[in-house]
Amino acid sequence: MPSAEKTSVHQDRPDVRPTRRDSIAASGSELIGGPAGRRALRAPGGRLTPVRVVALVAIGMFALGMVQKMPCYNWAWFRGVNSQYTHACYSDIPHLFVGRGFSEGLVPYFDRLPGDMAYLEYPVLTGLFMQIASWLDLAGGSLQNQQQVYWLINAGMLMICTAVIAVCVTRTHRRRPWDALLVALAPAFALTATINWDLLAVALTAAAMLMWSRGRVVAFGVLIGLATAAKLYPGLLLAPLLLLCWRSGKWREFTTASFAAASTWLAVNLPVMVLAPEGWKKFYTFSQERQVDFGSFWLIIKNRAGVAIEPETANNYAMLLMVLIFLGMAALTLYAPRRPRFAQLVFLIVAAFILTNKVYSPQYVLWLIPLAALARPRWRDFLIWQACEVMYFLGIWMYLAYTTGGKNQGLPADGYYLAIALHLAGTLYLCAMVVRDILMPERDEVRRDGSDDPSGGVLDGADDVFVLGRTAADDGFPADGPRVEWGTPPSGTASDR
């Protein structure tokens, strides 16, 4: 079916409103007057479009997250260590302004830092983001004032990233724009948004997902290359894409996207790689040499079982686990009764990377939130997961308060290990729900109306050409359209879709 025809069919259908299909969303909507009616937000050119509403809500929640950091902004970042933990408002941004030489005008990757770190331990595009913010920081006066302004400038730039994420997630599923409210209202998003610079990579990844959903294969690859130059995890999106293109026979699209991603990543990195090789490779050597750290199950094993885990050992086992998980995903993708949706597999591979990593920092939840909204847009499960993440957010700061305060006030080690287990369990729970949707596609919320893969781009409605255990024609579905056998589609026939 031509893409133009498929696009017109999707656009003719009414938007899916969660308040009329999700009991939790419906209950929550009572705070603002109840579920939306048939005529709500339908006026052409109306001001309250879903994109604008979601973007404004996301910016509002981001601003509330900034307010939550005010005790630190005003004094706690600068008066000892413990206060920023007891107020749960820690951020790397003001500390690294000093610790990575930006306050002294040092250039990342080129100028050697004093102390053991030697060079900035961030990927090139994130380093550029940090450098631009330091150029914009024209504050004079005390070092404290410069740190405050630097945090504010970064917060403003990260707020722009937040708006980009909100818009991209809203537009990725054409008929489900309101699912992006999961991102906009996520409490863990607001709490962790300004801890570090992760939102840059998250925004580029969200834009890449939008481009793929529109069939813009080269643009998708370019954005993935840029995102991987800002953070390592976006490169993982090519792994589920390989599996889905294998099942659907879309090898040309996969090759094009991969080449565009690799070329873009190389174009961004090559100047620094050539001109400052020692500084460029610091991120990669630091990632390899980093000790087992906060938030990971490796830390529980190391401290509770008394097992010495060297970085190399953790790296090797984490790599082995990722290989095994990828093989499991390959089996799931190729055996599933219907081809999994792209967003589902992307969420699973990124979650697997975080769960097996040596460190699971509080802000890593930002990587997953937009993917979760696309993979499993169910408010109950999303809020269960968010509750676990909020508990961990509080747990790590209370544990650090306990260990740095000297008065045993806060959360002792056993309590912190319980908090780690809780947020790992929350992530695993959401992964289990996504896997269940793949194995039982009739329970997939996105496919309830007869859709195939709204974020799948060229995969949406594509035929299967390779299915393990049976031929594509053995599953009982028509070979020329999306394999839908439940529900009543809003309009059209199976061939129309």
Percentage of helical residues? Answer: 55-70%
Rg over alpha carbons: 23 Å
Calculate the mean pLDDT score and round it: 88
For the record, the count of structural domains works out to 1
Strand content: under 5%
Question: What does this protein look like?
Answer:
This protein is mostly helical. It has one domain. Helix content is 60%, strand content 0%. The protein contains 22 helices and no strands. It has helices at 3-12, 23-29, 50-68, 70-76, 82-86, 92-99, 124-136, 143-172, 181-184, 187-192, 198-213, 217-230, 238-248, 251-275, 277-280, 282-289, 297-304, 311-335, 342-356, 365-375, 379-405, 413-439. α7 packs across α8 and α11 runs antiparallel to α12 (217-230). The N and C termini lie close together (8 Å). Mean pLDDT is 88; it is low at 1-12 and 475-497.
Please describe the structure with a list of short key phrases separated by commas or semicolons.
60% helix; disordered C terminus; globular; 497 residues; mainly alpha; disordered N terminus; 22 helices
In a few lines, what is going on in this structure?
The protein is an all-alpha fold and 497 residues long.
